[in-house]
Description:
Elements: H1 2-19, H2 22-30, E1 45-46, E2 57-58, H3 61-77, H4 84-92, H5 94-97, H6 100-109, H7 114-132, H8 150-155, E3 158-160, E4 170-174, H9 186-200, H10 204-209, E5 211-216, H11 228-238, E6 246-252, H12 256-269, H13 271-274, E7 277-278, H14 284-293, H15 313-322
Parallel strand pairs: 4-5, 5-6, 6-7
Antiparallel strand pairs: 1-2, 3-4
Helix pairs in contact: 1-11, 1-12, 3-6, 3-7, 4-7, 6-7, 9-11
Amino acid sequence: xxxxxxxxxxxxLSTAHSNFAIEQTKREFEYTMASSKHVTPPSMIxxxxxxxxxxxxxxNEEVIAQGLALMEEEIAxxxxxxxxxxxxxxxNCPELSKSNEHKLMFLRSEMFNADLAAxxxxxxxxxxxxxxxxxxxxxxTLDKALRDDGAALSNGFARLxxxxxxxxxxxxxxxxxxxDETKYTRESMVRALFYIQTAALEDESTQKKxxxxxxxxxxxxxxxQFDRKLIKMWAATVRGVMPLRVSALFILHTPYLFSxxxxxxxxxxxxxxxxxxxxxxxxxxxxxxxxxxxGIDREILPTEVDGGVSLDQEKWLAERRFAGK
Length: 325
């Protein structure tokens, strides 16, 4: 029992730490309209912070055009070494890497701070090449870049819920009990996770508002399933890399000892991170009430928490393959 609690504690804390890097949180709260006009569009207006403390720029055609122009300037300032992945992408898949739609995702993930967006864009292509190799320049579809990762994709460790919460954020459901590294390599699972996040980013409102991660522990994962090395590898592909705003992490059905320790730890996280790391009660009704107050209705949640969605990873994969995704 001790080993289980220790495993759960270290796994979930590493998840929280990885997805909510202090630097990113500070950026989102400290960049204001006083930012240099050479970094953020001069006509941009940011809305008031939401329940997770995130501010969202008000977008229009002018802001987007200014942001894209500034981002091109910032990309040009990057060193040759940092832009190596960008050069390769522009050579091998220019229809994607040079498109405004692709670059706009990076601007949105950095609240139209062109400097940070350019750096994230360059890191993205470096990382994509690192984890996919020659397949990095192929379409990010099941039959192309992911053609050798079927076992990891079918595993269901991370699944994209079919509906978004009320503000328009996608939800990625994470269940450590499904991990079984005898059936796939960590590298393959990282590629599968990259694909699932890419699928979430197909939605424009998710690009703007972000993603919510829900880590579910109700299936009593064994201690050896808490793969901290995998989580570290996953985090390396997200933090400052994916054009993904991580809005919140909900940790559901936590072991009792972990709940006590985590709630004590929350005091030291600071107000900003406290808004993003949520540990609801293990009582189903109280949990559902808390989630509903956050705009996450019962009907869009999995049956594991008495919701209305029966997750079927194989069906999801088949539908996406049929659609050429």
